[in-house]
Amino acid sequence: MSIEELTIWTFDWVPEGPRGFVRDLRLRWACEEAGLPYKVGTVAFEGRATNHLEQQPFAQVPFLSDGDLEVFESGACLLHLARKSERLMPRDQAGETEVLQWTIAALNSIEMVSVPWWFLKISGDADNALTGWLKMRLDQIEAVLSERDWLAAGRFTVADLLMADVLRVPDVRAFGERPASEAYAKRLTERPAFKKARADQIAHFEAADRV
Amino acid sequence: MSSKPIITVFKNSPDEGAGLARDMRVRWALEEVSVPYDVRPVSLTDLKDPDYLALHPFGQIPVYWEGGLVLFESGAIVLHIAEHYPGLLPEDPDDRWRTITWMFAALNTVEPPIVDREVVEYFESDKPWQQERFAMVEERIRRRLDQLAAFLGDADWLHIDFSAADILMVHVLRRLEDTPILDDYPTLSAYIARARARPAYQRAFDAQLSIFTENQPTERPEPSQEQPASASASVFTQSFFHGTKADLKPGDHIVAGFPSNFLDAGNALSWSYFSATMDAAIWGAELAKGEGRERIYVVEPTGEIEDDPNLTDKKFPGNPSMSYRSREPLKIIAEVSNWQGHSPDQVRQMKDNLARLKADGQAEIID
């Protein structure tokens, strides 16, 4: 393995439900956009609570290895990849800082609400305490997206990749009419790099079904 | 970028100056790198103003200005500060990434279940399933804390030296301080205490508390005529406070020998107790015996002082509530007129806890 080589680590198999949404997809998508070559490494789904704590102290995926460096947390991995390629983030300081801001906003202002809301919803509590909070956040992001095509620096960046990945969840998309957000999610998920990343992830897990 | 950074902060923080609002992270980071900054206090109404929403689409604090740069999201602001001023990230590029990874872990793996717990606490208090949800969310929190404590082991900080990752992680964990969960994690309690003992943390904490204190309406009756014109706590951030229901005036002395405020009967105490934090003094006033109104005095010890053993090495190692005692009299300097008490619920809960301790035979004052 060459020292420069990127490896995206994910599970060897997951059940059908999460396929197409496991977060290694974010990293695959970023590498595809940037044209960065990468390999996919796996940890066993069986025994996952303890079998990769060395690499990921919270027993999650994905994590990324870049030569000797290992990075976990999809947000940190994306930022690391973005600093390797101008296609993911502009090089000027103002642009870079704006991308950083929106990357963290996707994770901490939107996903911080949407994931627990979704979890309660699929647990059967459709009208849960987070509904009002999520509605407020989605309305706020709708207002932003009504006025521009891209979140930061006037162009596609890793912040859009992450925000789109947060907003494309079917239950989130179906939660109220938000045409600008819907058009944004649609536009982003039509990018060839996304389609390839998603298809590759699904194929990766399907291949394990046949073993 | 040479101009002094400015951040927006709550004029009236919902946490009542406990330092849990997101401006605290940014203040702390700026204090650590010794960058002076200014604040713009904003009200909850200001946050809904279209002009504010143009700066921050989610209508939160803090917004950060530095020269021409305007930023929101506390995590982004702290990372920006850490990358532009030395001291909060390691020099080695790989170690920088490992540290940044932990910043994301604090924000995106440890904080979410903790925020979720607050949602259950505040928004589902009237729901029949609240207890069940509490149990679920607590289990998620404990899983993360187990993993975090295992990772931390006997290290002082998350990666090599103190870093921006510790600022975020400690600030996230502090949201559990008023729950019993942390009692089961001595490693993490010690980690929090170690971080809180940093002078930069203390400066940041005092600064945010003084904003809250200054903005409280005066609800108390007129102070005595010797009272300085502005006796808000911020003026006395380095001072000592004593809470009581006794009516005293500047120049008076509090002497040891009164019975305890906290126990029904028993012997008179041979020490006078006081604190360098308003919070401890406020508890002193609220829990004091007597029918008089609750008062906080700024006091000056006249002799040797020592850590209050009743509040040292208890929930947290060391003396984080900065509680002290002295055998010598305490001189009253002034009465603090502007302070916000705990909510009736909090006071009732504290009294219940003390009553339970007493019932368990654990109520004892080390005197």
What does the largest sheet of chain B look like?
A: 4 strands, mixed
| Spatial arrangement of strands, main beta sheet of chain B | 2-1-3-4
Say what oligomer this is.
heterodimer
Number of helices of chain A: 8
Beta-strand residue percentage of chain A: 5-15%
- Compute the average pLDDT of chain B: 84
Structural class by helix and strand composition of chain B: alpha+beta
Form type of chain A: globular
Looking at CATH, which topology of the largest domain in chain B would you report? Glutathione S-transferase Yfyf (Class Pi), Chain A, domain 2
Structural class of chain A: alpha+beta
Q: Number of domains in the coordinates of chain B?
A: 2
The CATH architecture of the largest domain in chain B can be given as Up-down Bundle
Task: Assign a percent range to the helix content of chain A.
Answer: 40-55%
Give the overall pLDDT of chain A as a whole number: 95
Radius of gyration of chain A: 17 Å
Q: How big a fraction of the residues of chain B is strand? A: 5-15%
Biggest sheet of chain A, in brief? 4 strands, mixed
Share of helix of chain B, binned = 25-40%
Structure description:
- The complex is a heterodimer of chains A (211) and B (367).
- With 211 residues, chain A is an alpha+beta fold.
- Helix content of chain A is 52%, strand content 9%.
- Chain A contains eight helices and four strands, in the order βαβββααααααα.
- Chain A has helices spanning 24-34, 74-82, 93-122, 131-147, 158-167, 170-173, 179-189, 192-209; strands spanning 6-11, 38-43, 63-66, 69-72.
- A four-stranded mixed beta sheet of chain A has the order 2-1-3-4, covered by helices on one side.
- In chain A, strand 1 (6-11), helix 1 (24-34) and strand 2 form a beta-alpha-beta unit.
- The radius of gyration of chain A is 17 Å and the shape is globular.
- With 367 residues, chain B is of the alpha+beta class.
- Chain B has two domains: 6-214, Glutathione S-transferase Yfyf (Class Pi), Chain A, domain 2, CATH 1.20.1050; 239-359, Rifampin ADP-ribosyltransferase domain (ADP-ribosylation fold, Alpha-Beta Barrel).
- In chain B, 39% of the residues lie in helices and 13% in strands.
- Chain B contains ten helices and eleven strands.
- Chain B has helices spanning 23-32, 50-55, 74-84, 93-123, 130-152, 164-173, 186-196, 199-214, 278-287, 344-359, and strands spanning 6-10, 38-42, 64-66, 69-71, 240-244, 253-254, 272-275, 295-301, 305-307, 323-326, 330-336.
- A four-stranded mixed beta sheet of chain B has the order 2-1-3-4, covered by helices on one side. In chain B, strands 5-8-11-6 form a four-stranded antiparallel beta sheet.
- Chain B is globular and about 60 Å long.
- The A-B interface holds A 53, 57-60, 68-76, 79-80, 94, 97, 100-101, 103-105, 107-109, 111-112, 115-116, 125, 129-130, 133, 137, 140-141, 143-144 and B 53, 57-60, 68-69, 71-73, 75-76, 79-80, 94, 97-98, 100-101, 103-105, 107-109, 111-112, 115-116, 119-120, 123-124, 127, 129, 144, 147-148, 150-151.
